């Protein structure tokens, strides 16, 4: 399964930055409120570095990890002062830090065959061990209802690109599949690429309980800072290390 190859990485960066921007603003507010104004932030599934750019600009040191080499290339260009590695978040070291992020359904993607609810809980434990007291874990997960139990087709357009996503949810297996076809013009040539993304869906209450078990004080987010509002099938969490 391809994971955000060159064209989809570019399109994500160009047209779908609102979640990362909103999450970064929410995290900055919470860090400042907790008096944590400097230190390391570990970004799991950092993507093209949209949130990393904002957090680095606010004075934090960024360690970013993403399974997509194309995303990591964009992140390195955008945040030269950060440190980025193309690796799965399940292998990423989480060093002592003030915050850990996993923005944009990072734990749901099944690009890495080890991914799933238990693997996510393992990351909660590693994050808890690495965070300073009062440190924060911020993330969002796709949940049952994300795609509805019917087929949806949505098309988005931006300068020089168009992307169509066909979404099918299998409620019995708690799985979502997105078939994403991108069209992009590069050096005067039009090209089409297709990716299939399979996601596992997690129940909101079960995620909440797992955060408590790992030693966090969790909070459900209704919004990432007003830039992106959560709705049915998509839940945001801000968890404080006790
Ligand atoms: C929707 S994008 C979000 C990217 C970024 N966090 C943002 O909000 O702009 C999902 C990201 O998760 C990454 N991803 C999926 N599974 C991963 C894994 N096992 N390890 C690291 N990154 C992963 C993808 O490559 C992609 O960059």
Structure description:
The structure is a single chain. This protein is 28% helix and 38% strand. It has 242 residues and is α/β, with parallel strands linked by helices. It folds into two domains: 6-143 and 202-241, Rossmann fold, CATH 3.40.50.150; 152-199, Single Sheet (N-terminal domain of TfIIb). A seven-stranded mixed β-sheet has the order 3-2-1-4-5-13-10, with helices on both faces. Helix 1 (6-15) packs across helix 4. The longest helix has 16 residues, at 18-33. The chain is globular and about 50 Å long. Bound molecules: S-adenosylmethionine. S-adenosylmethionine is lined by residues 3-4, 12, 19-20, 45-47, 50, 65-68, 71, 88-90, 103-106, 109, 111-112, 115.
Could you give a quick summary of the protein structure above?
This protein is an alpha/beta fold and 242 residues long. It contains six helices and 13 strands.
């Amino acid at each position: 399964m391809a994971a955000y190859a060159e064209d989809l990485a570019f399109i994500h960066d160009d047209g779908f930055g609102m979640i990362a921007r909103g999450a970064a603003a929410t995290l900055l507010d919470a860090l400042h409120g907790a008096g944590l104004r400097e230190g390391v932030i570990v970004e799991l599934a950092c993507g093209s570095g949209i949130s990393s750019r904002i957090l680095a600009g606010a004075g934090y040191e960024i360690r970013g990890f993403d399974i997509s080499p194309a995303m990591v290339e964009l992140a390195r260009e955008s945040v030269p002062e950060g440190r980025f590695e193309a690796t799965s978040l399940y292998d990423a070291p989480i060093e002592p830090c003030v915050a850990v992020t996993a923005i944009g359904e990072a734990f749901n993607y099944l690009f890495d065959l080890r991914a799933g609810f238990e693997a996510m809980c393992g990351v909660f434990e590693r994050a808890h061990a690495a965070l300073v007291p009062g440190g924060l874990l911020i993330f969002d997960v796709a949940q049952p209802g994300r795609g509805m139990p019917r087929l949806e087709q949505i098309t988005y357009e931006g300068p020089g690109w168009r992307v169509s996503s066909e979404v099918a949810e299998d409620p019995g297996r708690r799985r979502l599949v997105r078939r994403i076809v991108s069209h992009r013009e590069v050096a005067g040539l039009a090209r089409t690429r297709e990716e299939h993304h399979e996601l596992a869906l997690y129940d909101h209450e079960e995620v909440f309980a797992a955060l408590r078990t790992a030693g966090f004080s969790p909070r459900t987010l209704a919004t990432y800072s007003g830039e992106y509002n959560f709705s049915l099938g998509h839940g945001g969490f801000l968890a404080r290390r006790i």
